[in-house]
Amino acid sequence: MKQDQKPIPEEESANRLVAVIDIGATSIRMAISQIDQRGVIHNLESLSQAVSLGKDCFILGRIESETIEECVRVLKIYRTKLDEFGISEPGDIQVVATSAVRESRNRLLFLDRVFIATGFEVEPFDEAELHRVTFLGIQPLLRQREDLANSTNVICEIGGGSTEMLVVESGNVLFSETFRLGSLRLRKSLEAISGPMSELPNIMKEQVRQMANRFKRSIPKLKNPQFIGMGGDLRFAAAQMYSDDQESELRELKIGEFEEFANSIVAKSPDELVNQYSVSLPEAESLGPSLLAYAQLVKALRLDSFHVSNTNLRDGLVREMILPEVWGKEFREQVIRYSLNLGRMYKFDEVYSTHVADLSHALFRELHSEHGLDRKHELILYLAALLHEIGQFVNQRGYHKHTLYLIRNSDFFGLGQKDILLVSLVARYHRRAHPQPSHDGYTSLDRVDRITVSKLAALLRIAISLNVTRQQKVSEMQAEIGSEWIQLRIPSTELSLEKLAIQSAGTLFNETFGKRITITEA
Amino acid sequence: MSENRNEKFFNRELSWLEFNQRVLNEAFDEKNPTLERLKFLAICSSNLDEFFMVRVGGLHLSLAGRDLSRDLSGLDAEQQLVRIHPRVRKMVADQYSLFNDSLLQALECAGIRVSKFGDLDEIQLAQVEKFFEEEVYSSLSPIATEETSFPLVSNQTLILCFRLEVDQEKQRPLIDDELLFNERYVVLPVGKKLPRFIFVPSSKKLELVFVEDIIRNLAGRFFKNQRIIESFVFRVTRNADMRVDDEVASDLLESMEDLLDERTTGEVVRMEVPPDVSQESLSYLKSRLKLVDRDVYRCDGPLALSNLMQLAFASGFEKDKVPALTPQAVPSIDPSESIFASISRSDQVLFHPYQSFEPVVRLIAEAASDDSVLAIKQTLYRTSKYSKIVHALQRAAESGKNVTVILELKARFDEARNIHWARQLENAGANVIYGVRGLKTHAKATLIVRRESSGIVRYCHFGTGNYNEQTAGIYTDVSLLTSDPDLGADAAEFFNAITGFSRPHKFRKLEMAPTGMRKKFLDMIAIETANAKQGVRAFLRAKVNSLADSEIIESLYQASEAGVKVELNVRGICCLRPGMKGYSRNIRVVSLIDRFLEHARIFHFCHGGDERVFISSADWMSRNLDKRIELLVPVESAVGKERLISQLGAYFEPNDKAYELDSEGEFSRVKGNRSGLPNTQLGFYRAAKEERVAFESRTPTSFFPHKRVD
Question: Cys bridge to B655: B184, B241, B680, B685, which one at CB 3.0-4.6 A?
């Protein structure tokens, strides 16, 4: 007999288990991942079930009640699986829904029903959020591969309802766009036009060609780009084309072979595909148009080959869940770069605006105990400060309202619609009227967000006052906080203009925080 | 009848009958101890029972449904039956001549006397009469037959038939016509509650009389004042090839229970009678049971020879049995540590029954009481009556673990037991899935999800045999115990797929039927073919129970023609025709019948020098590849791979229990003197033993007192 060996230690592990569920047009997928002590993500289980959300949404514009119940049934199963792993904390589970749910008229009904039946709070993801998550998901891959890290990459996922496109150069996002053009949407719109079914492949090819050209026209001109395709349809194609091989992170496909395969798929009816490949019907319906579109797009970019990545939306979601701070540094830098480009487009005073933004940042930090807001709001304030004058591009008169309009109608890489609204409102309230419930945009916010806007706008007004000379005189400060007043000590000899400015600009601050703010030379 | 033969394939039924002949050959083999020979005779008989129920039953259904489809060799149902019956008749004649002319004598020498009622002395007679009075008379009741109907005689039970003279004067005529008949038939089912053998006091070690012999001779008590013109025992076999249409069954559990009732009422496909039954009685039974001549088998001796199995295992006759081979402990699994520790140290490949099945039972038992275990998932196809494994699963479910069991209700002849287990497990709180719609779940897999300090670790067991502790002692099977993360992820995928949690995805390492396994096999064979064509070394070896899938066989023919050396170890059905110029010159088929039932499925491919080894629950039959949930599992650890390669190789070495299949479908033993040849199964056993002994001699004996745990 051997010496007694200690059994494997069984104490509660420091590893974290997280789950993400994405409710897409043709399927609901779940990934359960384990994060080890070093922060490395290990995928434990992947589940998927077919649903016909896309079909409902793209034809009817609403989700039928049977489909809602279908989704509830799937999500209940997933809940069972989560229980098996003991994953129950809301912070460890993220459920997002993409275009099919987002575009349905009865999405609120859907979200409520899912919550009541399963306890899952589904977050409908808008396009910009999708970009952010996609970027996060693919970033590790881009970093790993030297050839990709230093080149211009067109990253594209053609989904059932929409197509997402990112152009990333040396880690920077140059362009991001979501098109309301997707494979299932295309098929459904073609089927709606009654015509001979035998003609469908040809009509589809023509439509897809136009679609691909639209994509190509909208992205900036690029030198020697690399094309990276994502999504289940492409992964399926790659697996079929190289069946003997293991699934790899990134696989290169020759466009000739790929197009041949895509054509063979288009030639078959969805029923045939279901039988031959045991895919679900919704997937089979989207497969042909999607593969064709990839092929056309790659050809339009004049490439001989392209890459298929096996990362997916869930990978990005998991990464976002575990990043040390939710809105990580990389993402902040991407958004700021984006905003600077936007400001330049509207010919803003870059030196002045950047300085005000930095002052806002400093104020936000100094007065944290007062406002109690988080890093995400810090970024919102920073962006609002950067862009608060862009409305002057339209007209000096009432420019703060033009600023609101311009920001609200711009794309910010990775920032969701609500966050963009917050940025635009904070920027709008940098002067003149205080927030009013009758103001457009502001009315749609809940109380917490309304207060946030007031707090951030109040800070922005102080920051602007500190640079009222537009000479960037003030850059440091130290706050002394009393029960009824706040004094900012600023290392400077002469601050009379600034003191004057604060007197009038500080009223919002006073109303919001209940404290009078003054400055003094240190 | 048009014949449309395809010479490239053997008929599967006839091939199966040749397998059963090889079983019978073991009974004929005088080198085997007497009780071992008796055992093989009993197995041969019980095999035939099942063959009639399922295969002949199926052919009858085809006939009734005017199904004109043909088997691989080009025969339709009628053409197959025409060939099957004479072959079986010859086999049955051989069985009885063996029993009467040789085995009875050998048993006598061993100290077991089989007596006839007429041979009993007074003391013995007194005892059997007492038995009749106490056990039989009160419990059995004769059933009168009527003109319009015949009592339901159940499948494969012994039934006594009495032809009685009707006393014309006492008979109250109901209808005038009845008076024309002056005799009637009464049947007396012997029932399965009575023992088949009645032991009587004797000078021998053991002396017995068959129970039906006693009842037949004392049956006068049932029919006072009536003359028995003729009495004899008969037995019917009913078609059991009935399936629940589980595509439409809303409650499978209930439908399966209905099916079990139905099995007792299926069409009769065979009747066994003694050779001296009168023409009148035979005609009577044939017309009542709707039989034709060829369905009738005259058996010159006791019916249901399968019951002799009991005698073959009688205690106290050790010198007339093969010496017992105790399954050996596995050195790499240390009983003093957690089995999870052993598995995480290295993959464990076990070869049963040479090596013990106990680690597999232990894995599940330990998991059941381990607080770190989150979930246990398992497939159950056939399990034993008293199953430690099922009890462990029950315990785990009761203690609140997540237990999922895929219990195949459609496992033929084990339905009743499985329904029982299903209810037990459900009551304990386990999540029981009754198999998969339209498919039988035949895969043998266990997944244990455990939370350890390093995170979630998944332990798996994959096997070629059932989770059945009893059969694990007599079937040769392979087990793989592993904590390979890829196999663990695949096992999770597998269970998610078959429990409906998710659609099937691509596996990392596993292959599954009916989705990817056929293609995987065809691909692996095709790679050998392609390599051979390019002059690269190419071979493949496979060990299966049955080889009957045309696509696989055709691809093996192509491989053979390309020059791939194909060696197959096939226990039972083999539809492949080896050694034919033009398609199968390079294919060799061997078969082994010995004390342990060959049951493992192992595959070995040269793969251009990067050799690949797999184990599987599946045979190379269409039903396994298309109609069942099966798994193909790669064995990748160097030690495990090495072990399986050498074990598989041993089947193709000359050995005394091997047969080789020739191009005419004949299986023949190795020519010449067999006595000098090694015995493969004993060789495996010795190797397992030596491995254990060598390990123990390396580790000095020491004692470990139980100490108080602080």
Answer: B680
